[in-house]
């Protein structure tokens, strides 16, 4: 665990996600939660060592199972997310919990560790901007569509820290689960400008980074958009985006054992970019640049 600024903590060592905590005079506000029960227990104990104040609220930076599954271990009455995330989790199937545990648990004992877990889904949403106010602190939440339509950032300008969720992940192919890649690119460009007050960027997964680390993601998105746009304008079907996968595969490292999974991730993202251009045409808008 690191203290990035007085009362601002981050843990990059848990499986699947990087999580944060902001200590106010009234208690903690958490940014995402560890999905594995033993990691959640460890995080609770570390926070208790810092202060015996309660967890007041959780902010989920998107609707990914890795971010919301562990909410129930922290006893927060308030769970905040973008309104698109709130709508998405309201329609989760009844099989969501079992499917999530199946995906995360590697063996029977690990599956048993999830016993007693209860979903605690986001229950407060916002559309563009929101401030959480606890113990004299105002914590700004910003709608930042990117890998998900409901992606959000937690920006602490006075501390020059920003939590970006999966809008920034390092040394792996980005998740693209929404038709928002043009807005995503614009958000990353805005982040890199000097007037955006952030020296420490907390990505959705992995270690802290600085602004320069966002360039590989932008380069990936630009290339993917250019290639898909050419394919789309040539009248080729969405299925043909599979021909673009090999070129994009080489842009980030991956384990050979993960090859098929990474290829599926890339193909899914390319399909969403294709739909982004198609939707822009249907509503009579220019694609917004390639």
Question: Would you give an account of this structure?
Answer:
With 290 residues, this protein is an alpha/beta fold. It folds into two domains: 215 residues, Ribonuclease Z/Hydroxyacylglutathione hydrolase-like (Metallo-beta-lactamase, Chain A, 4-Layer Sandwich); 56 residues, no CATH class. The protein is 35% helix and 22% strand. The strands form two sheets. The protein has a seven-stranded mixed sheet. A five-stranded mixed sheet has the order 8-9-10-11-12, with no helix packed on it. It is globular. The mean pLDDT is 95.
Quick tags:
seven-stranded mixed β-sheet, 35% helix, alpha/beta, 9 helices, Metallo-beta-lactamase, Chain A, 290 residues, 22% strand, five-stranded mixed β-sheet
Beta fraction of the residues?
A: 15-25%
Could you name the CATH topology of the largest domain?
Answer: Metallo-beta-lactamase, Chain A
Number of separate domains = 2
Distance between the termini: 40 Å
Largest beta-sheet characterization: 7 strands, mixed
Structural class: alpha/beta
Rg estimate, integer Å: 19 Å
DSSP, total strands: 12
Order of helices and strands: EEEEHEHEHHHEEEEEHEHHH
Strand order within the widest beta sheet: 1-2-3-4-5-6-7
- Write down the overall geometry: globular
What's the CATH class of the largest domain, please? Alpha Beta
The named CATH superfamily of the largest domain: Ribonuclease Z/Hydroxyacylglutathione hydrolase-like
**CATH architecture identity of the largest domain:** 4-Layer Sandwich
Q: Low-confidence parts lasting 5 or more residues at pLDDT below 50?
A: none
Mean pLDDT: 95
Tally the helices: 9
Helix content: 25-40%
